[in-house]
Amino acid sequence: MTKTLLAEFSVRPGREAHVAELVEGYSRRVRQEPGNLAFEVYTKESDPRSYCVFEVYADEAAFRAHLTAPYGALFNAELRPCINEEESVLTFLTPADHAPQARRR
């Protein structure tokens, strides 16, 4: 089963250009990982300093391999002082057709 997540962070004022450059380089590398199926970077229309990154990996092993890529640690170390959060906020997603159905009354 694929591993899907949304990573979110907001950029500190004055760091926008640096973060855009970091994210561009990082996304090129991640998209080349054998188990990466999607790595789509967005900013919120209402707040261009707020990033949402939609990521899909072939399976848990591919996601774990992504986490251990040496360039990932470098990216996060350089990103951390540029964002408002301690680190990217990760939300793991499940396809709606696999989610438990709400009980009907």
From TrEMBL:
- Keywords of the record: Monooxygenase, Oxidoreductase
Q: Which Pfam families match?
A: ABM
One of the record's GO molecular function terms: monooxygenase activity
ABM domain ranges (all copies): 3-92
Its recorded name reads Antibiotic biosynthesis monooxygenase
Organism equals Streptomyces peucetius
